[in-house]
């Protein structure tokens, strides 16, 4: 489900330190244990406040919601079966299976009620509260107009959960794999207080694994099989060792020395080398990377010609070939290919037929628009900062863009600021940037998972781009057109075309993640949300 602000390609701890952490034996020496890498530390394990793919994967590993993805198949999890849907698609009644928390307590309908109310409660400051829009009273609650207790979710009894929507939501069930919709034990959360989700001892699991040896900042952790999990009989890998690796060469070395069983996010020369290896897998992600331009901090970015000029100065094919050196795809718009289809049509490709010229490399046109934009704003060419992660490939990406901008756009001076992943997320959310390298992985397989981000008041609209027509179309897709697939498709296409024409964000690429995975690992499913499902996976 990854569904979270995703990491800008890459990552950096010293090789010697990683080798020491991993140990001297092969990661696969234990037949029921594997070691996989992550590109950075887990920021939080609070399902209400996590925003990135790293914590998202750990939450998927250790918790279950009403549904769970197994590859492309959406299957009931804590829900015992498909819900009863009534009132024209506005009421969902779920019967819950006999499931337990890792401390032995039962998972009840009230745990869902508490978790959902906690996420939409304004004081929680969940950036995913907007996903609840359409659940009865959710918008008024997040706006502080109504109490969380009025949210349209009810525990009919311990094993029956009733959800009331304000209008039908065609993608409602797919959203429920997001940790924001997971149950939470009120007793446990209130006892942990502000420490909830900050370390292993302040966590409670109801999923396949329990997170161990995690102190909130460390570069290593363990996920051990949760014996109380309702589907424990199908969890065949006893231990998943997590290891932060921030450099592609380090990842490749560790994999070749059998200290990693899964190595991901390999880029540059190492990606080219990895593609020649028999264990190579190219995982096409439902995620795109893009630049956000801070219109609130730098009013020059309110000018569409300035934003368009920046986009046209980027040779995306060359960037992928020279910097990423993997199988990633130039992004014509913010929505990735393969995410959303209808009657054999791909939404992203259809949108590109009308707006694709906005992301084509055209330095002459870029210079013209840049000059016109500066004249319209009455400003001289600016000196601005490009914010990105402190990883090897992220730095190389920033250097490529810096060169492209300064060559094509007269007088534009770009300074690069590289910071740790958590700092980049924090600065992005607080508006402390001029330009920032961002990315998003789908929360669920629908174009709205991306297009919603750039509405005027969305918590993830860090650049503060705003367009009233765009906002109206997104609202129309959720209300008037919600039960008419064709009308909804066309409305979302119009919205996508506005976003791309205006370059509300500057799309760069859709990642095809270079991954190395041992052939001893079988039946490990990769989900539409960019996460792994380790249930049913085996290792020899």
UniProtKB/TrEMBL annotation:
GO terms for biological process: peptide transport. It is found in: Cell envelope. PROSITE patterns: PROKAR_LIPOPROTEIN. SUPFAM superfamilies: Periplasmic binding protein-like II. Residues 1-20 form the signal peptide. Belongs to the bacterial solute-binding protein 5 family. PANTHER family: PERIPLASMIC BINDING COMPONENT OF ABC TRANSPORTER, PERIPLASMIC OLIGOPEPTIDE-BINDING PROTEIN-RELATED. This is Peptide ABC transporter substrate-binding protein. It comes from Lacticaseibacillus chiayiensis. The lineage of its organism: Bacteria, Bacillati, Bacillota, Bacilli, Lactobacillales.
């Amino acid at each position: 489900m990854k569904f979270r602000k995703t990491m800008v390609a890459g990552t950096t701890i010293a090789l010697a330190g990683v080798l020491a952490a991993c140990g001297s034996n092969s990661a696969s020496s234990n037949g029921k244990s594997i070691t996989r890498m992550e590109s950075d530390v887990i920021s939080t394990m609070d399902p209400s406040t996590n925003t990135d793919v790293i914590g998202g994967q750990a939450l998927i590993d250790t918790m279950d919601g009403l549904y769970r993805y197994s590859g492309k198949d959406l299957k009931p999890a804590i829900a015992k079966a498909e819900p009863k849907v009534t009132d024209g698609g506005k009421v969902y009644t779920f019967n819950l299976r006999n499931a337990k928390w890792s401390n032995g307590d039962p998972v009840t309908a009230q745990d869902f009620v508490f978790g959902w109310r906690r996420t939409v409660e304004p004081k929680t400051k969940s950036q995913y509260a907007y996903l609840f829009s359409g659940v009865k009273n959710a918008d008024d609650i997040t706006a502080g107009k109504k109490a969380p207790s009025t949210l349209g979710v009810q525990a009919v009894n311990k094993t029956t959960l009733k959800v009331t929507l304000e209008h039908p939501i065609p993608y409602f069930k797919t959203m429920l794999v997001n940790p924001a919709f997971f149950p939470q034990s009120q007793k446990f959360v209130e006892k942990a207080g502000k420490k909830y989700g900050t370390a292993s001892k302040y966590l409670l699991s109801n999923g396949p694994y329990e997170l161990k040896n995690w102190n909130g900042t460390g570069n290593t952790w363990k996920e051990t099989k949760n014996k109380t999990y309702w589907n424990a009989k199908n969890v065949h890998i006893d231990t998943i060792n997590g290891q932060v690796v921030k450099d592609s060469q380090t990842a490749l070395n560790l994999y070749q020395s059998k200290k990693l069983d899964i190595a991901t996010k390999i880029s540059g020369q190492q990606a080219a080398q990895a593609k020649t290896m028999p264990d190579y897998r190219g995982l096409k992600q439902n995620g795109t990377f893009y630049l956000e331009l801070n219109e609130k901090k730098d009013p020059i970015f309110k000018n569409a010609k300035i934003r368009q000029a920046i986009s046209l100065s980027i040779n995306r094919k060359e960037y992928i070939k020279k910097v990423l050196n993997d199988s990633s795809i130039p992004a014509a718009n913010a929505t990735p290919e393969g995410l959303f289809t209808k009657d054999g049509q791909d939404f992203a490709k259809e949108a590109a037929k009308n707006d694709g010229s906005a992301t084509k490399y055209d330095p002459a046109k870029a210079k013209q628009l840049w000059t016109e934009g500066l004249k319209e704003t009455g400003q001289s060419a600016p000196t601005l900062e490009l914010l990105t992660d402190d990883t090897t490939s992220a730095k190389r990406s920033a250097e490529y863009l810096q060169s492209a901008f300064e060559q094509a756009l007269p007088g534009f001076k770009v300074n690069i600021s590289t910071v740790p992943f958590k700092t980049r997320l924090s600065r992005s959310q607080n508006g402390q940037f001029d330009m920032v390298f961002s990315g998003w992985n789908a929360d669920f397989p629908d174009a709205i998972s991306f297009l919603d981000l750039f509405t005027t008041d969305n918590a993830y609209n860090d650049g503060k781009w705003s367009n009233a027509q765009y906002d109206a179309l997104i609202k129309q897709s959720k209300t008037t057109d919600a039960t008419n697939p064709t009308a909804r498709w066309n409305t979302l296409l119009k919205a996508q075309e506005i976003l791309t024409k205006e370059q509300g964000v500057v799309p760069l690429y859709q990642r095809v993640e270079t991954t190395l995975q041992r052939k001893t690992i079988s039946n490990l499913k990769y989900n539409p949300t960019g996460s792994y499902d380790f249930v049913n996976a085996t290792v020899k």
